[in-house]
Design goal:
The structure is a single chain. By secondary structure, the chain is of the alpha+beta class. It has a single domain, classed as Chemotaxis protein chec. Helix content is 44%, strand content 24%.
Length: 149
């Protein structure tokens, strides 16, 4: 399975198409994949998976929800899987961001595609900056100190 890294700044075009970073397109070709999987993500982002990452996510979700029963587990699964779509690349290396995912992430024009290890995340640029400043940066500092990095 590929590891997804890096930060890339892009803009949505007027038709809600987004350029996929070259490194991710190359990884898709290496897997002989035909599309990415997009789904709602946490913290108001969109998750973007390579096919191998999506398969691993499915396996992990089976394991992690095996002991979860009831309405909450069903709601989480329904929310993620009902939002998921297959996003095919066009000839210019772009994918179409459907309106329901655009709304979920509050995407305007400027977006950040951020590697998150087992997936990429698509953020509205202003939301990403706010999240980085308020949550990710302080969490990193605290954890780095705890780990004596």
């Amino acid at each position: 399975m590929q590891v997804t890294i890096g930060r890339y700044d892009y803009s949505l075009d007027p038709k809600n198409r987004l350029v996929v970073p070259g490194r991710y397109r190359e990884a898709l070709l290496a897997e002989k994949g035909r599309h990415f999987i997009m789904a709602v993500g946490l913290d108001r982002c969109i998750w973007l998976f390579l096919p191998s990452q999506w398969e691993a996510f499915l396996e992990d979700s089976k394991t992690s929800t095996r002991d979860m029963k009831g309405e909450k587990a069903r709601a989480v699964k329904r929310h993620i899987f009902s939002s998921a779509i297959e996003a095919e690349l066009d000839e210019q290396g772009r994918i179409l961001v459907p309106q329901h995912l655009k709304d979920h992430a509050g995407l305007k024009k400027d977006v950040v595609v951020s590697g998150a290890g087992n997936k990429a995340e698509i953020w509205d640029s202003k939301s990403w900056e706010s999240y980085s400043r308020k949550q990710a940066g302080p969490s990193f500092e605290s954890m780095a100190q705890d780990l004596d990095l």
